[in-house]
Amino acid sequence: MKAVILAAGQGTRLRPLTNHLPKCLVQVHRKPLLQYQLESLQQAGIQHCVIVVGYLGDMVQRHFGPKFGNVRITYVTNEIFNHTNNIYSLWVARQELNDDILLLEGDLLFEEGLLGDIIRSPYTDVAVVDRFNPSMNGTVILAQDGLSTSMILKTQQSADFDYRNALKTVNIYAFSRETLAQQFLPILDQYIDHGLTSEFYEAVISHLIARGDLQMAVHLTGNRMWTEIDTEDDLRQAERLFPDLPLGSYADSGGVVVRADLGARTVPTDSI
């Protein structure tokens, strides 16, 4: 199994912090977001990680280099990150989707054990989800007996959408090699061939579930904490949610300065 982390975006909602810094290098407790993910992968026993970079991608490569602990790193570049979405970032890494895959987005912070939970799942194709609450927004899943029955992207959720049974996607997925080769990659290619490069990759998952070609289990985060970081308020919230994270100590061989002054203002803990 290998991991794929999508980290090509510009992080516009985190400006000015991301004016000269890729989003995945913004820090929580003096350590870059991406470092937490690499540490989690190492703790879970994953030995190969593919990172898709784009905006200021050379900074990411200089910062982490070809290896993090026992995790070998391969970099793939989305050269047109400024006018494509994450479906295209995943597509440019398609040659690396030749194994069982853990797919993550580079703006997530989560408890280390969560990845181990997924790896130990009896299911090969898994979406990590949390119970929906009104402060959340984005793609949701409806499920029955532990299996997804539909995936609904934000653009497909009408004003009167019933969220009572909705599960919020955490943006961590597991896919088997067979599912990728036989179902996912052919549809991913079709989306790109039709010029749909501004879509989210979840559109492919949604398509496959709706067609009955993908049995995707849902894994509830349960007591394991997680958060997605899009704004400075999210950064402050992350430092409150994860007060016991160790301070960063990873040597930055590229001389990149990534500390963001988050100030003292806090956000209520029910805001995510």
Description:
With 272 residues, the protein is of the alpha/beta class. The chain has a single domain (2-241), classed as Alpha-Beta Complex (Spore Coat Polysaccharide Biosynthesis Protein SpsA, Chain A), CATH 3.90.550.10. Helix content is 26%, strand content 24%. The chain has 7 helices and 14 strands. The protein has helices spanning 33-43, 57-64, 86-92, 113-119, 177-193, 202-211, 232-241, and strands at residues 2-7, 27-28, 31-32, 48-53, 67-68, 71-77, 101-105, 108-110, 126-131, 140-144, 147-152, 167-175, 217-220, 226-228. The strands form 3 sheets. Strands 1, 4, 5, 6, 7, 9, 10, 11, 12 and 13 form a 10-stranded mixed β-sheet that branches. α5 packs across α6. The longest helix is centred in the last third of the chain and has 17 residues, at 177-193. The protein is globular. The two termini are 31 Å apart. 41% of the residues are buried. Residues 247-272 have low confidence and may be disordered.
